[in-house]
Amino acid sequence: MSPTMVEHNGLDIMCLNKYCPSSSSSSSSEHDKKIFPKLKLNLSADYPRKNAEILSGQYGTNLLLIGAALMLAMAQHDSLVEEEHLLSFITSLMILQLIWMMWYILVRDRQKNARTERDVHVTTCWIRGGLTLLALLSLIMDAFRIGYYVGYQSCVSAVLGVYPVIHATHTIAQVHFLWFHIKDVIKSLETFERFGVIHAVFTNLLLWCNGVMSEAEHFMNNHMRRLSALGYQNLTIVHSKPLCNCTTSTCSMFTSSLYYLYPFNIEYHIFVSAMLFVMWKNIGRTIDVSSNQKRLATKTQGLSVGPILGLFALASTIGILVVYITHVESPQTRQSAISMFYIYGIVMLVLMCFAGASGLLIYRADHMPLDTSKNPSRQLDMELLFGSSTGSWLMSWCSIVAVLSSSSSPPYLWTNFIYSLLIVLEKYMQNLFIIESLYRQQEEGIRKDPELPSAPEIFSVTSSLAPPYNGIINRAYDTPDRTCVENEHEEGGQVYRCPRKPSEVALPLGTKVVEPPNIKRQILKNISVFLIMCNISLWILPAFGCRPQYDNGLEQDTFGFSIWTAVLNFAIPLNLFYRMHSVASLFEVFRRV
């Protein structure tokens, strides 16, 4: 070892290279030089993405809050903020989204040769087909709005005519975007695209809020007219008719038809915003190829009980809706109509609870591991189920408090109590069943597409040339050790003969092997179909005016008119979204079983 000289305050200190402080400091400095560039690289790689997420999220949230502020100002009577101001703001947002979508589509068309990653879990064809149907109904609503504007154009703002035209254009372009680009995983211009996608998310959320507010205002006016007919005083009914006469004979038809189409328009915008939010979460994401495989078709054999019970529930729902709307207007039949609704709801919810509990028991008996792979679409499904459940849970607990504290005893008092408890329990069961199904790994045996026709057995064809065997049997797979002995020669070559097992029967060409039915899967499929039809039924009733929470008077006497109205305006839109979102999730459950 060669010593080195270190000068320190005039003294020469001998030290070995191995233990010399200068050597260790130089090695540590070299180590720091290696660490800091890596740390700097990691920070520089992650910081822009997180920064863009935060900035774009705050941008979208503030767009929504601006719209909410305009809506709250409009809710005040004789406010300086008019409907035209809100519609002008929403129209400008839709135009910006249209510009971004056109730019995105043009850029992707120019990059046809570049491979774009796609997340197959974002949506399915049937969901996009359903959204297309909702979009068509929204376009009909826009046509009615245009007709309404034409009839009153002499005394209403031009914004009322421009808004439906822009909304129709926005709907058509957005449906095209959903069909061809919603699954894209964006890897270029991430910051700019993140702002564009989040702008689209909150534009649709604002359109949803506007639809909810308009529908709630219309229903509230009808409710107060009903209360006035029953003798209630001091109720203010807002008349929003224009100050001039309609120049056509169809204005009243357009006005009344609009409110029957509002539920479809509301569901369209909230579903689109959810799908666009998943696209926003996927920006810059690295897709796991092993878990990013297209779900295959599923068999529909064995479906009998579920569809029959579901159709019966749907038919009875339509009957209940018609009877309720026609009888609740009359003071003589009002209480019987409300009691009928609660009895119907109790029967429906008991059956749904039983179906969900049966599905959970089947899953518990089948010990399959959970799928823990990252899936933003599935994670959003779970969060939306839980989040939208809070609306009806709040409404149910308020009803329970009102029943327990009520001094009156109408005939529907305890049916309301039981119905509210079952609402809470049913959503517990259904949420657990859906989450259990979506997070459960599929069996290896059902990953193959069961709808595809099985290939014919090449070595299992019948042949008249070998009558003793009725066919040629391939034993290469069953006996890879080639234990068969070559024992006969023929003119064209060699024939390998083996002792034949008694159970072996050669199949003719094209014959399929019929697999034994899986009873558990058939039960789960029937449960899924039944719950789908029940959720559609429970969506139809409040969407088209069957809302006994307004009419029974118990909650209104306990909480007061204004507070209870605010609770319902918050809870009912969430409940409607929960039912429709449950339909989508349960269809995914049906396909995965």
UniProtKB/TrEMBL annotation:
GO cellular component: plasma membrane
Statement: the UniProt record of this protein carries the keyword Transmembrane helix: yes
A GO MF label: proton channel activity
Residues that span the membrane, as ranges: 59-75, 87-106, 126-148, 160-180, 192-213, 259-280, 301-325, 337-363, 384-405, 417-439, 523-541, 561-578
Biological process according to GO: inner ear morphogenesis
One family name in Pfam for this protein: Otopetrin
Protein name per Swiss-Prot or TrEMBL: Otopetrin 1
Organism of provenance: Echeneis naucrates
